[in-house]
């Protein structure tokens, strides 16, 4: 799969071969890449530390240093953190002894000591507390087993009650194409240059934590084809370009939204609010008539069409004409948020999907096996794990049979996007701040608005929606933390996330 603005995900063996071709034994090039990686890891860690209040001015850093490049990356990352926070202290635990360091890692250690000799020490035991633990023990060439002392160290670090943030360089020690008995349990994994397959393997999720891809320039556009790829923020770059001066609201698409019920009115409102921030020109929302007036007062930029209701407050079949008489004006249609599962409403949705000529985004209760396979219109499906299990055919994510051209966006720790069996692209953005009601409704509206702007490219719309939504979530968490926030606050971070993506 060649997803827009993405980099390949390779097995550890493939990554080793790629790096051997890239560096061809050139130690100067390897040293330059190590410095680049160390600086990028440091910047990433300090950036992510804002989710828990920021890195303290006199923070305590523990580096777990192995022998090779991962040790060098971690040591250089500690050096750059010291430069930013001169009052901080660094303790380095040489897992195989200082003399076990390979030449470039030894060079990195010397640079760290020279940066602040009075604040850098070699340690042989864990302190009572550490603000940051950098894991640089094993790289992607790790092969099990490791000795009992290393296993004991990893278990002690994982169980340590007072390490505020655990960061793995490239991939957590103990993971690999063949995993060990125990692995470092990271809060964040900073993949340097190449994303290795083990970090996207769901079996390693508890060890990997949240994935950050640090692009060190190893790949040119489409230089390496791969079945799996990781999306980068540059997928959003075209949205930052100046719009044509002669454009008008119809230039940027018309999105229809069909959803809501008397029991679940808020979901469709959040979807519309997000769509209005997507850059789409027009939004028309078809909602239960009992809530249309209130929603129009809340979001007057959208056109609200009141829909006849069933006795239970769902959308009634008799309202189908309201959509059909306007459908020729739609560039894309979002169906599902707040819909409910009343039989009449689901029959209505099935009929709409069967006859819709334009691209669809199906979300929430519209994700039913019969509905997602109805009709032939291109579609984007946005299931969470439970909904994905409901609509899978034969349990295979990549081979789920649906009618027409289908993009599957499976929401989770890594949002996985695939197009009709052609491989998978992962968005690594977002995090626990999204673990609250309404996050998926915002994603549906944002992606639907993007789909209306590029109706012929549903894969592009899905990739952009996932990345933009995730970047805004990251920005929200850095500004306000992960706990005391409301879902709709994410909308206020969409502009900053978009500009940061283009920086």
Please outline the helices and strands.
Layout: E1 6-10, H1 12-23, H2 27-48, E2 60-65, H3 69-84, E3 89-94, H4 103-115, E4 120-123, E5 130-136, H5 148-159, E6 163-169, E7 188-192, E8 195-196, H6 205-208, E9 210-214, E10 228-231, E11 254-258, H7 266-276, E12 282-288, H8 289-298, E13 303-307, H9 320-324, E14 332-335, H10 343-355, E15 360-362, H11 369-372, E16 379-381, H12 385-391, E17 406-410, E18 415-419, E19 424-427, H13 439-453, H14 458-480, H15 494-501
Parallel strand pairs: 1-8, 2-3, 2-5, 3-4, 5-6, 6-7, 7-9, 10-19, 11-12, 11-14, 12-13, 14-15, 15-16, 16-17
Antiparallel strand pairs: 1-10, 17-18, 18-19
Helix pairs in contact: 2-3, 3-4, 7-13, 13-14, 14-15
Can you describe this structure?
The chain is α/β, with parallel strands linked by helices and 503 residues long. The chain has two domains: 6-46 and 56-230, 3-Layer(aba) Sandwich (Rossmann fold); 244-501, Ribokinase (UDP-N-acetylmuramoyl-L-alanine:D-glutamate ligase, 3-Layer(aba) Sandwich). Helix content is 35%, strand content 18%. A twelve-stranded mixed β-sheet has the order 8-1-10-19-18-17-16-15-14-11-12-13. It is elongated and about 80 Å long. The two termini are 26 Å apart.
């Amino acid at each position: 799969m060649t997803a827009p603005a993405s980099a390949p995900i390779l097995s550890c063996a493939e990554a080793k071969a790629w790096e051997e071709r890239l560096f061809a034994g050139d130690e100067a090039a390897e040293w330059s890449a190590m410095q680049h990686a160390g600086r990028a890891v440091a910047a990433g860690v300090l950036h992510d530390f804002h989710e828990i209040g920021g890195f303290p001015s006199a923070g305590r850093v523990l580096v777990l240093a192995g022998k090779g490049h991962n040790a060098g990356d971690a040591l250089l990352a500690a050096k750059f953190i010291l430069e930013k926070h001169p009052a901080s202290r660094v303790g380095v635990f040489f897992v195989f002894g200082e003399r076990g360091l390979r030449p470039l890692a030894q060079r990195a250690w010397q640079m760290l000591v020279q940066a602040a000799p009075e604040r850098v020490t070699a340690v042989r035991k864990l302190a009572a507390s550490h603000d940051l633990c950098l894991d640089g023990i094993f790289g992607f060439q790790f092969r099990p087993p490791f000795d009992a002392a290393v296993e004991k160290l990893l278990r002690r670090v994982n169980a340590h009650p007072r390490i505020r943030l655990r960061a793995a360089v490239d991939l957590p020690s103990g993971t690999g194409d063949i995993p060990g008995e125990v692995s470092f349990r990271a809060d964040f994994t900073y993949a340097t240059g190449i994303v290795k397959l083990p970090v996207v393997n769901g079996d390693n999720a508890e060890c990997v934590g949240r994935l950050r891809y640090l692009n060190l320039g190893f790949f040119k556009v489409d230089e390496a084809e791969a079945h799996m790829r990781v999306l980068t923020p540059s997928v959003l770059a075209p949205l930052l370009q100046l719009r044509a001066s002669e454009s008008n609201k119809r230039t940027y698409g018309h999105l229809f939204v069909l959803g809501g019920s008397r029991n679940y009115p808020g979901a469709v409102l959040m979807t519309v609010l997000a769509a209005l921030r997507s850059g789409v020109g027009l939004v028309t929302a078809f909602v239960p008539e009992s809530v249309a007036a209130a929603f129009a007062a809340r979001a007057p930029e959208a056109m609200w069409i009141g829909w006849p209701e069933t006795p239970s407050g769902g959308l009634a079949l008799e309202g189908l004409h309201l959509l059909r008489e306007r459908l020729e004006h739609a560039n894309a249609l979002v169906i599902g948020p707040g819909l409910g599962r009343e039989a009449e409403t689901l029959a209505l949705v099935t009929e709409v999907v069967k006859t819709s000529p334009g691209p669809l985004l199906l979300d929430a209760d519209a994700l039913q096996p019969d509905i997602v396979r109805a009709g032939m219109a291109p579609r984007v499906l946005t299931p969470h794990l439970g909904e994905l299990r409901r609509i899978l055919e034969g349990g295979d994510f990549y081979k789920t049979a649906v009618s027409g051209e289908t993009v599957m966006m499976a929401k989770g720790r890594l949002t996985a996007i695939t197009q009709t069996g052609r491989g998978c692209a992962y968005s690594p953005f977002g995090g626990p701040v999204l673990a609250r009601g309404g996050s998926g409704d915002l994603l549906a509206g944002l992606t639907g608005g993007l789909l209306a702007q590029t109706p012929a490219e549903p894969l592009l719309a899905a990739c952009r929606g996932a990345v933009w939504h995730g970047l805004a979530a990251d920005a929200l968490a850095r500004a306000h933390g992960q706990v005391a926030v409301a879902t709709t606050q994410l909308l206020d971070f969409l502009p900053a996330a978009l500009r940061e993506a283009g920086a």
